Every structure is written in structure tokens, then in C-alpha cells.
TrEMBL record:
It comes from Piscinibacterium candidicorallinum. This is PNPLA domain-containing protein. Keywords: Membrane, Transmembrane, Transmembrane helix. The chain crosses the membrane at residues 15-40, 60-82, 106-126, 138-158, 179-199, 211-231, 238-255. The keyword Chloroplast does not apply.
Length: 730
């Protein structure tokens, strides 16, 4: 009997949850989306950090009020439709039981309070790494969100008592009126937001912010979806199942695939041959130099916005500290965020060519005064300090969400395009006062007609259908230079993409950024035509070293053919504090550190964990392999081994500092953390540019100092200096 009663209770609970499934899923989606991803607390830190500036104080509180208003709207809408679903479809005999009555009363209220609880968890996590007014604001927002959750539940309880005391006055008509208002308001809001995201997702995402957009998406979709389910329940029409079946059907046949990569008008320019790029680089060097000329190669690892900011910051600070640095950089191999940082650096290098200090960077005799700020640093910081996350969220939750239901693709609704446009606009504001930048030019012609030294860019992606590395490149490496590497020009010769598109194509990591379709391939044996899709280069190998090692080998041989006495210098830019690398000079990885025990489901999750960890291990092996070959000698055209220099720069974990996110927005504190860590790691390179010291031997000497100083973990005294720098005490 007890077992039967338990079964009946569980059955009733399951049916109650089934009736409120739409508003329950909506509230859970909001709560989890704003609290679980590491990017969302970083978005709250962006808002909290603005409290430090008194001129931004009004905007901070206005935005806070806006987020709160969206949480109220979402919570009330979810509560209302949960209550209506229970009231309309709960069996009448069940409603006679007190336990069911309490469930029908309190469950909708809890569903309405979930968005506020998610905001409280998000702002509580955001407190990590904040100090002063910013930390106080985050704490205040946390407490306020909890108070608002309790207040919402209390007001709904009070509403019930008022309605019961005035039943004759209000009657039941208010329920229908409220439903109509909620439904019409949801549809109208959704139409406005869809129109806005279609016209300008960049301004929409940056104006509203990612947190408010998540709340608005639930407010828009829950009411009409709950209304459809409620209408279908009496007739036993499985609305949700039909919608899921429709989505599965059009997705099965790729009828809604609108993720075609954005292309430029016109025909592609001829891509620069590899040997031509070497000759261009050689033309910037001193042919009479008695000492070896540093030929610099850079590998920029992936890692979202932190990798992009880290890559651009390292290259810009090296440019400022090492006069003539940019003149010696031959190629940059980037992955994911590292590709974005490399593209921003190349663009900033071009558009700051006339700024003070550019002559010293180019390796000329003139040097800037010692007090000149790092113009190149400022250009890249302002570009990557913009919100690149809000635009893609705006496009994903509205225009691209609607596209999932349409069997006809609308390429303009592709969410990846919003991120590319956001990067281009940020670069225009930071570099050219609104004029087009290098990011908007075709990558094929990047090495032509340059105002400043332009490194060859190899932006790594992964081929979905083939599983191979595919580099979107500004040069055309010959086949003998490659080891399992393809280029986009090999697979799709007619592709004509901009530098920003190429960089973001390298950074399309699941699921925020979709796989990019760049054309089609025909099977030579069967004649079958298949789509050619590319995703983040980190799926294959996340360090960028595997591609770079191929380029180092061939470029060293090609330079020696041109009778240049070069010394290869590889700079590996990493951004993951947990990267496991080899000891310098050894081609063997250190054992992985012991990690806390992972949760269960071993048989289910072990294959997935293995695939993810294989990706990381492959990058570590490629990094160690590159370091070993460079330091033990690269063979030139005469068969001689040329021992090069390997410089490793990475971010490090610090006690009390928040973990930098893998998303696409950084707070001012996170950016300051990266800037200070880079400055500390590059300290052995000497003072900032201004000494007029541009000779290759001195540049090589400083690079050797960096190679000796930057391997290994962060010393305790250096961590204390970085803490002082981050918090503005330096």
C-alpha cells in the first residue's frame, strides 16, 4: 500500500511538472544561462567595474535597473503561464487534495523567482577579483536579487489574498485580460527585437548586454509557446513534439543552414606565393649584417577573448620594448582567439604606421621620446576591449533562433556575422576614426601594398568533413612545406573573405559560433557533392605550433637560398595557466598534475572526456615538438643545422584572481590582469622603446633573455608585483 501511495504521489508530481514544462524550462534556461558559463560573471564584472568612474555611475545603475526590470517581466510571465497551465489542465479531483493545492500555488511562484536566483548566483561569482565600489556593487546586486526573488513570491502571495477578499469585484475576467496582455506584449516585443537584430545586431547586443538579452529571450518565447501548448492539450495535440520533429526534419536535410561564410564582392586576388613573402621579408633586413638576422615566427594559442587580448598585448608590448621587432616578424600561426589577436595586431600595425614611435618599430634610426605611450598597445586594447559577446548573443537568441524554424536559409541572419561586424566596428573606432581598416580587406591580398611590415598570417581552422587542419592564409605555402596541412585556397580557390572573417572563422567554437560553410567539394570517385565546413582550429590542435613548425622549416631553407644569414626565433604565446609543457631542451612532456576526482557516469562520459583531453594533449605535444626542433636545430638549404631561440610567454594563475573566461568580453580588471602579467613576463627585454637600439644583434640578445626567463611557473615575488599592478598600486 505504501509503495502504491508513493507511486501515485510521484505520478502526480510528474504530471504537474509536465503541465508547467514550458515556463519551467524557460526559467531554468535563464537561471542556468546567467550563472553557469564563466562568461556571464565576467559580463557582470564589466558592469561592476564601471562604478569606479563617477561619470559612468548613472549608466551603471540605469543598466542595473534595466536588467532588474527584465527579470521582473520574465519572472511574472513564467509564473503566470505556469499558473494558467495548472489551473486549466489539472484534474479537478486532484485539486481537492491539500498537497496538490499547495503545489499549484507555490510551484509557479518558485518558477517566477528562478531568474532572480540565477542573477544572484551570477553577481555573487562576479565578486571574485573585484575591490572597492565595484565589489560593493556586486554584493549589493546579489543581495538585491535575493530580496527581489523573495519580494516577488510575497507579492504573488499577497495578490492571492487580495483577490480572494474581492472575488466579486474582480471576477475571473482579469485572468483572460492578463493572458491577452502578456501574449500580445510578448509577440510585439519579439517582433521589435527580431527586427532590431536583423537590422543591427551589433548595436542591439552592445546596448542591452548579454544578461538582459537572455532574460528577454525567455520573456519573448515562453508566453506564445506556453499558449500553443495549452491550446493543444485539450485536443491531445503534442505541440512541442511536433515542433521538435519539424526542427529535426529541416535540420536533417540542412534546409535551415544559413551559416555560409561572408564573402567579399568581386573575384579573389592572387594569393602571395611563399617564396615571394620570404623575399619581401628579406628586403626589410640589412643584407650586409655580420651577425645572424632574427627571423621571428609566432604561434598564438586559442582561448577566446583572453587569447585574443593576450596575443595582441604580447606582440604590441614586444613591439614597444624591442625596436625593429615588427620588421623581423615573418609569420604568425594563430588558433581561435589567437587568430583574432594576430589579425588585430596586423591591422593596428598598419594603421599606427604614422603614429609617434612607428619609425623605431620599423627599424629606422629615429627613435621616439621616452615618454611616448604605446600607441600600438592602445589601438589593440581599445579594439579587443569592446563587447564582442553581446552581438553574437543578440543574433543567436533572436534572428538565428527564428531561422531554426524556417526551411529556407537566410545568410544575413547568421549569428557569426554579427561578431565579425562587431570586431570591424571596434577596430574602426580604435584605429581609423570610422574609416575601413585592414580587417575589412581580403586576406588574399594582405601582403601587397603595405604601409608597414605585415607578417604572413596562417589562421588555423578544422575541416568538419575531413578532420584535417585548414589554414586560412595570406600566403600560399608550397606542398613540400606542409605536413598534413591544407589551406582554404587549396579546398576552395574561389573563396574571397576578409581578414576579420578569416580570423573569426578560426574561432568558431561550439556552440555560440556555428560551423562556417565555405563552399562544396565533389568526390572524384562518386561525383557526390558535399558541403565544405570549417570550425575552430582548436578542435585539431590548440597551440598553433604544428602549423608554425612546418613554416619555420621551409622559411629557414628559403632564406638561406637567398644567402641570408638568419636565426629562427619562435615565440609561443599561450594563455592557459593549466597548459602542460616540456622542460626546456627536453622533448618529453611532464606528467599531468593530479586533478580532483571527476563525477561519475564513467561509461557514458569517458569517450567524450577522452576526445576533449586528446585535443589539449595534442597541443601540448605540438608545443614540445616545436621547442625541441627549434632549439636543437633547423636544417637550412646547405644541410646545416641552425639552432634557434624559443620564447614561451603564458598567463599564470594568481591567488584571489578570477579565472579569465573563454567567451568574448573582458572586464577592465581582466584586461589589466593580462597587461600586467605580460609586462612582468617581458621585463627582461629591457625598457620601452626610445633608446634607438634597433640593431639585430641587440634584438637577438633581448630575445635570448626572454627565452631564458619566461619558461616555467610564476615566481611568488613576481605574482605580488602583478597583484600591485592590477589593482592600480604600481
Amino acid at each position: 500500500m505504501a509503495i502504491l501511495n508513493l507511486w501515485r504521489s510521484l505520478r502526480r508530481i510528474g504530471y504537474v511538472l509536465y503541465l508547467v514544462r514550458v515556463p519551467l524550462w524557460g526559467s531554468l534556461f535563464v537561471a542556468l544561462a546567467v550563472s553557469l558559463p564563466a562568461q556571464m560573471p565576467e559580463v557582470m564584472r564589466v558592469l561592476a567595474a564601471d562604478v569606479r568612474g563617477s561619470n559612468l555611475l548613472f549608466n551603471v545603475w540605469l543598466h542595473s535597473f534595466f536588467v532588474g526590470a527584465m527579470a521582473w517581466l520574465t519572472g511574472l510571465a513564467n509564473w503566470y503561464w505556469a499558473r494558467i497551465s495548472l489551473q486549466a489542465h489539472m484534474p479537478r479531483d486532484w485539486l481537492l487534495q491539500p498537497s496538490v493545492q499547495r503545489t499549484c500555488t507555490w510551484l509557479p511562484r518558485g518558477i517566477g523567482a528562478l531568474p532572480w536566483l540565477g542573477l544572484a548566483a551570477c553577481s555573487w561569482q562576479a565578486r571574485s577579483g573585484l575591490t572597492g565600489p565595484a565589489a560593493q556593487w556586486a554584493l549589493g546586486f546579489t543581495v538585491g536579487a535575493l530580496v527581489m526573488a523573495a519580494l516577488l513570491v510575497y507579492l504573488l502571495h499577497l495578490r492571492r489574498r487580495v483577490l480572494e477578499a474581492n472575488a466579486k469585484r474582480f471576477g475571473q475576467h482579469w485572468i483572460a485580460r492578463t493572458g491577452r496582455v502578456s501574449l500580445v506584449g510578448s509577440i510585439a516585443t519579439g517582433f521589435v527585437l527580431l527586427l532590431w537584430s536583423t537590422i543591427d545586431a551589433v548595436s542591439m547586443g552592445q546596448s542591452l548586454g548579454a544578461v538582459a538579452l537572455v532574460l528577454l529571450s525567455a520573456f519573448v518565447f515562453v508566453p506564445w509557446l506556453a499558449a500553443l501548448v495549452s491550446l493543444g492539450t485539450p485536443a491531445r495535440v503534442p505541440v512541442l513534439r511536433l515542433l521538435v520533429a519539424w526542427l529535426a526534419l529541416i535540420s536533417l536535410f540542412d534546409l535551415n543552414d544559413n551559416h555560409a561564410v561572408r564573402t567579399l564582392p568581386g573575384t579573389p586576388q592572387p594569393i602571395t606565393a611563399f617564396d615571394t613573402a620570404v623575399r619581401q621579408w628579406a628586403g626589410r633586413q640589412d643584407p650586409q649584417a655580420a651577425q645572424p638576422t632574427p627571423m621571428i615566427f609566432v604561434a598564438a594559442a586559442g582561448g577566446g577573448i583572453r587569447a585574443a587580448y593576450m596575443t595582441a598585448e604580447v606582440l604590441a608590448q614586444m613591439d614597444a620594448r624591442l625596436p625593429g621587432f615588427s620588421r623581423h616578424v615573418f609569420a604568425i600561426s594563430g588558433v581561435s582567439g589567437g587568430s583574432v589577436g594576430a589579425a588585430v595586431y596586423a591591422s593596428a600595425l598598419e594603421h599606427t604606421a604614422d603614429a609617434p614611435g612607428a619609425a623605431a618599430r620599423a627599424g629606422l634610426a629615429q627613435a621616439p621620446p621616452p615618454d611616448v605611450s604605446c600607441t600600438l598597445c592602445n589601438a589593440s586594447r581599445d579594439t579587443l576591449g569592446a563587447d564582442l559577446f553581446g552581438p553574437v548573443v543578440a543574433a543567436m537568441l533572436f534572428r538565428d533562433a527564428v531561422q531554426r524554424f524556417l526551411p529556407v536559409p537566410i545568410p544575413a541572419w547568421d549569428r557569426a556575422r554579427a561578431q565579425e561586424e562587431a570586431l570591424e566596428r571596434a577596430a574602426r573606432r580604435a584605429m581609423t576614426a570610422g574609416q575601413p581598416t585592414l580587417l575589412e580587406l581580403p586576406i588574399n591580398g594582405l601582403m601587397q601594398a603595405a604601409r608597414a611590415p605585415r607578417p604572413a598570417l596562417l589562421l588555423n581552422t578544422t575541416w568538419v568533413e575531413g578532420g584535417s587542419r585548414v589554414a586560412v592564409s595570406s600566403v600560399s605555402p608550397p606542398g613540400e612545406a606542409l605536413t598534413g596541412l591544407l589551406t582554404l585556397a587549396d579546398l576552395a580557390p574561389a573563396s574571397h573573405v576578409s581578414l576579420s572573417t578569416a580570423a573569426m572563422l578560426s574561432a568558431r567554437f561550439t556552440y555560440v559560433s556555428p560551423a562556417g560553410r565555405v563552399g562544396a567539394l565533389t568526390d572524384p570517385t562518386t561525383g557526390e557533392v558535399r558541403k565544405l565546413r570549417l570550425v575552430d582550429g582548436g578542435y585539431y590542435e590548440n597551440s598553433g605550433s604544428a602549423t608554425l613548425l612546418d613554416i619555420v622549416r621551409y622559411a629557414t631553407r628559403e632564406a638561406s637560398k637567398q644567402r641570408l644569414n638568419v636565426l629562427p626565433v619562435v615565440i609561443q604565446i599561450d594563455n592557459d595557466p593549466d597548459t602542460v609543457v616540456a622542460t626546456p631542451g627536453e622533448r618529453k612532456l611532464r606528467p599531468l598534475p593530479l586533478q580532483p576526482a571527476e563525477p561519475g557516469f564513467g561509461e557514458l562520459l569517458s569517450p567524450i572526456r577522452t576526445l576533449l583531453n586528446t585535443r589539449s594533449a595534442r597541443g601540448s605535444h605540438a608545443l614540445a615538438d616545436t621547442e625541441w626542433h627549434v632549439t636543437h636545430g633547423i636544417q637550412d638549404a646547405q644541410g646545416q643545422l641552425v639552432e634557434g631561440v624559443f620564447v614561451y610567454v603564458t598567463l599564470q594563475s594568481r591567488s584571489g584572481a578570477p579565472k579569465l573566461p573563454l567567451g568574448w568580453q573582458l572586464s577592465s580588471g581582466a584586461r589589466r590582469d593580462i597587461e600586467c602579467q605580460v609586462a612582468a613576463r617581458l621585463a627582461p627585454a629591457g625598457p620601452a622603446a626610445g633608446s634607438g637600439d634597433t640593431a639585430s644583434p641587440q634584438l637577438l640578445q633581448r630575445l635570448r633573455l626572454l627565452a631564458a626567463a619566461n619558461w616555467g611557473r610564476l615566481p611568488a615575488d613576481e605574482a605580488a608585483e602583478i597583484n600591485q599592478c592590477v589593482f592600480g598600486q604600481k
